[in-house]
Amino acid sequence: xxxxxxxxxxxxxxxxxxxAEQERLLRQHIRYCKEHSPFYGERxxxxxxxxxxxxxxxxxTHKMEVSIRNxxxxxxxxxxxxxxxxxxxxxxxxxxxxxxQGDLERLAYNEERAFNACGITAxxxxxxxxxxxxxxxxxxxxxxxxxxxxxxxxxxxHGTLEGHGEVIKHANPTTVVGVPSFLRKLGNHxxxxxxxxxxxxIDKLVCIGxxxxxxxMQSLPIxxxxxxxxxxxxxxxxxxxxxxxxxxxxxxxxxxxxxxALGLVEIIDEEGQPVPxxxxxxxxxxxxxxxxMPLLRYRTGDISFVNREPCGCGRTSLRLGPIIGxxxxxxxxxxxxxxxxxxxxxxxxxxxxxxxxxxxxxxxDLSDRMVVHLSFxxxxxxxxxxxxxxxxxxxxxxxxxxxxxxxxxRVVFTPESRKPVRFIDLxx
Length: 428
Ligand SMILES: [Zn+2]
What we know:
With 428 residues, the chain is α/β, with parallel strands linked by helices.
């Protein structure tokens, strides 16, 4: 299965070469799914891999199916299992995902190519601020990627702000991997303690879990802030435990490249039909060469769009835009549809706003009610003025409740979550 390991050139190949290789890999993947995965053995019983004309003729796989029929997705004997993680499920309990040694090697290769695209080489020292433990795959993936590229890794995980500061002082990392809002907090903290970060050794930030670009591909305020605070370039990545596939921005910072030999991505609408390039819809991933729990046309529930234009870096591979929302989080407020991320982006652009979270309630059958809980920074503003600006940006006016910063932080930063919790969904 592991013929992805010799395919760097495919990132720069012509569309015809890529199409031919992806068709070969898709047939191989379908054969593997049919033969080894009980779920797909049943689901694809009528499918002849050699006769497939279009991807759209194949069935989609829902997150809920992987959660509920979990063991039927396992395609290897238990002795082949190398690593077990749990992804946050939609069913109320976490979904178990298993990886073989081959899956971990594939993941390392994927991260190596991702790191390579944003300029990380063997001479880099990579500080990992994402945890290796607690059954998450992210920290392990970035560690394997750093090693595959030949760089040194510093596994400081969920260390304290002071602890990361000491590591930066003594180990001179050139790259930091972490969640954008955490990297902002860390950078501001170290700056306030007199550390001159722009003059320090760090010149790259690899950002996970939160977007850096708006749907227009313009940098979000947090991306601009991060680059200023750290004096480093910030690159966005996107991945999921289920698909074991990473999309990472290259040095052009213009969308996450997908390595063509590692998978196919589609964007579909509410009815499951493909949407034109550039239009947003649900991201569907078919990861090639996965062994433990192979997936076919997996619906991620994340909303984005693709760009197939050749990139300034020379790669011809498809780029995925920023994640503009989660399908389940789509809000309908008095006839206007929007994702929580749009509210977060608007709030991030207001220097008067300190911390915040968005609470959503049902307001009748077809409408949602948005309540923004926020604290003011050191530059307070009239609430009416804030509401006017929010409405101009979002086309709907949320309710706003101003609270002390400590109260907001208690909700947003919980020990149970690795990311700030800014969306509280109380809809029935
Ligand atoms: Zn590029």
